[in-house]
Design a protein that fits this description.
There is one protein chain. The protein has about 375 residues and is an alpha+beta fold. It is about 40% helix and about 20% strand. Strands 1, 2, 3, 4, 5 and 6 form a six-stranded antiparallel sheet that branches. The longest helix is centred in the middle third of the chain and has 22 residues, at about 115-135. The chain is elongated. The two termini are about 45 Å apart.
Length: about 375
C-alpha cells in the first residue's frame, strides 16, 4: 500500500512453456463486483511483473481490504489461478494507534487514550442501540479513521470529494474517514454520531433496499449530532429571509459543491426531517423511509406516508418557516403563536430519535415481508 498514491501488486511466475497471458482480478471489501485487468508481458518462461492501481483515478480509502488473485496462462494452454489473497489499504504516513470495542475499531494518531476511549464508546453505544432497535445483525467489523488536521484529511480523500466535506462514510466497506482533531472531543463525538447514523441507515446485510434521498439520509444524521450548529441555523435563516430556499428535489441527489450551498443543504435537510416529525410523528417518518427503501418515487412515498405530494409538503414546510400556515395543508398540527418547538424537545434526544425511527422501519419492512 503506497497510499495515497497507489496500490501495487507484484507477481513472479515461471512455466516450462512461455507465459503468454497475465491478468489480475480484484474486489474491495464486500463489493460483489470483481474487476479484471490485463497485465502486458512479453512471452517468457519466467515473468517478474506488477500491476498498480492509481488511487487518483480509482480511489479506495484506508482500511479497505482488497482481495485479489492472479490468472496466468502459457502458450501450451496451461492455466493457473492463484488463491485469493488480501492487500489491506493502509496509510503509512502516520503512526496510527488503534483501539477496538465490540465490532468498532478506532484508528487515530493525535489525542490521548482518554479521547479515543470516549469517542469509541459513544460510537459503539449509538450503533448497538440502533441495531438492537432495528432488529438487525452485524455484518462485519467497522473501522473509523481520524485525521487530525485539514491538510492530512484532504490528502487522504479522493480527488472528487468536495472541499467542504469533513467526513465520509463508505457503507459497503463499513468504514468511516473523519477530520477529527485530537483536542476537540465534543466535535469528534458529534461527527461520529453523524457518520454512525449513516452506517445504521445505509449498511444493510439482509435486504436490498432502494436508496434514501440525500436530504432524508443527511437530515437524520445531522439531527443525531445534537443541537443544530450555528452556521447551519444562520444559513437557513438567511435563505428564509431572502426567499432562496432550495427545493427538496434539488437536495435529493448530490449536494452542491460550494461551501455555502452545501451548508444550506445540510441545514434544510435537518429542518425538513425535524418539521416532518413535528407535524406527523416518527411513525409517519418510518413509513416514508420504508416507502423509499421499497423503491417508491418521491411522490408515491410522501402520499403513502402523509397523503400529499412532495411539492405540497415542501410548500407546507416553507410556510412554517415563514411563520404562516398553508391553506391547502391545514391538517398539519400547529404550535401556539406560530412558534416551533426545538428539535431536541420534540425528538427527546438525538439517539432516541434515530433508534425509534429505525425500530419503526424494521416493523414496517417485516410486515411487508409477511
Amino acid at each position: 500500500s503506497q497510499f495515497p498514491k497507489q496500490l501495487v501488486f507484484t507477481l513472479q511466475a515461471q512455466s516450462t512453456s512461455p507465459i503468454s497471458s497475465v491478468r489480475i482480478a480484484y474486489r474491495a471489501g464486500g463489493d460483489p463486483v470483481i474487476s479484471v485487468a490485463k497485465v502486458n508481458v512479453p512471452p517468457a518462461s519466467h515473468v517478474d511483473t506488477s500491476y498498480a492501481i492509481d488511487l487518483s483515478q480509482e480511489y479506495y480509502p484506508p482500511g479497505v481490504a482488497i482481495q485479489y488473485q492472479w490468472q496466468i496462462e502459457d502458450l501450451s494452454g496451461a492455466r493457473e489461478v492463484t488463491s485469493w489473497a488480501t492487500l489491506n489499504v493502509t496509510d503509512p504516513r502516520f503512526q496510527w494507534q488503534q483501539r477496538t470495542l465490540g465490532e468498532v475499531t478506532l484508528h487515530w494518531y493525535q489525542g490521548d487514550e482518554g479521547f479515543a476511549d470516549s469517542v469509541l464508546l459513544a460510537a459503539v453505544r449509538a450503533l448497538d442501540n440502533a441495531r438492537a432497535a432495528a432488529r438487525s445483525q452485524g455484518s462485519g467489523p467497522i473501522n473509523i479513521y481520524f485525521y487530525a488536521n485539514q491538510q492530512d484529511f484532504r490528502s487522504a480523500m479522493g480527488s472528487n470529494v468536495d472541499q467542504w466535506v469533513g467526513g465520509q462514510t463508505f457503507p459497503l466497506y463499513r468504514l468511516i474517514v473523519l477530520l477529527a482533531p485530537g483536542n476537540d472531543l465534543a466535535d469528534a463525538q458529534r461527527s461520529v454520531a453523524h457518520e454512525m447514523t449513516h452506517i445504521a441507515i445505509d449498511s444493510t446485510s439482509e435486504d436490498v433496499f432502494g436508496p434514501l434521498p440525500t436530504w432524508l439520509d443527511e437530515g437524520m444524521a445531522v439531527i443525531a449530532e445534537g443541537a443544530l450548529e450555528p452556521a447551519f441555523q444562520q444559513a437557513l435563516d438567511s435563505a428564509v429571509q431572502s426567499h432562496s430556499l432550495m427545493s427538496i428535489q434539488s437536495i435529493s441527489g448530490n449536494f452542491p459543491e460550494s461551501t455555502d450551498s452545501a451548508t444550506l443543504a445540510y441545514a434544510e435537510s435537518a429542518s425538513l426531517v425535524g418539521y416532518f416529525v413535528q407535524s406527523y410523528g416518527q411513525a409517519k417518518l418510518a413509513t416514508l423511509i420504508a416507502a423509499f427503501r421499497q423503491g417508491d418515487t418521491a411522490d408515491e412515498a410522501f402520499r403513502q406516508a402523509i397523503g400529499m405530494s412532495q411539492l405540497a409538503f415542501q410548500q407546507q414546510w416553507e410556510a412554517s418557516l415563514q411563520g404562516t400556515s398553508s391553506p391547502s395543508t391545514s391538517a398539519a398540527p400547529s404550535t401556539p403563536n406560530n412558534a416551533q418547538p426545538s428539535l431536541v424537545s420534540v425528538l427527546l434526544t438525538p439517539i432516541t430519535f434515530v433508534v425509534s425511527v429505525l425500530e419503526a422501519v424494521a416493523r414496517l419492512v417485516q410486515a411487508t415481508k409477511g
